[in-house]
Amino acid sequence: MYAIVEIAGQQFKVERGNKVYVHRLEASEGSKVEFDNVLLVDKDGKVQVGTPSIDGAKVAATVLSHVKGDKVIVFKKKRRKGYQKSNGHRQQFTQILIQGILGKGEILKDEVTVAKKAAPKAKQEEVETAEPVATKKAAPKKAAAPKKAAAPKKAAPKKAAKKAEE
């Protein structure tokens, strides 16, 4: 199942579990966001195309981090005029993780709460009551002895070899 969704003015093909870099979003890291401008949904070969978007369809995502893109150097020059201008730029991006594609009236199940309910209570109590384990201090490392340089190979003298051939 995949969808074509418009995020921050660009169209992306997304599937559940994809990590996508989009233009910087005004959301904090770890927050959940939903995009409702879904243009196309393919569900097991059954394609829905919106006019221009599908009513009620959403894409749920979580903001992972805010990052900068690669550096782009802009260099301008006019020859024989003595004009040179150099400028750099790094685009701001947001990395998001696609949680799911939701149809009309569907609700995303929070996987974290489902996992907590499924775990037995006895194991949860053991984890909560476990005491921290004491850590050993690492012994200081000895300084390595300097390596001896290998003796350079001696080349046979060329003049002597030529005289021996004659």
Short structural description:
This protein is α+β, with helices and mostly antiparallel strands. Helix content is about 15%, strand content about 45%.
Structure write-up:
This protein has 166 residues and is α+β, with helices and mostly antiparallel strands. It has a domain at 2-77 and 87-104. It contains three helices and eight strands. Residues 122-132 have low confidence and may be disordered.
Strand order of the largest sheet: 2-1-5-6
Oligomer: single chain
Low-confidence stretches: 122-132
The radius of gyration over CA amounts to 31 Å
Structural class: alpha+beta
Indicate the overall shape. elongated
Give the SSE string.
EEEEEEEEHHH
Question: Kindly state the mean pLDDT as a whole number?
Answer: 80
In what range is the share of β-strand residues?
A: 35-45%
**Biggest sheet architecture:** 4 strands, antiparallel
Helix percentage range: 10-25%
Please give the count of helices: 3
Number of strands: 8
CA-to-CA gap between the ends? 83 Å
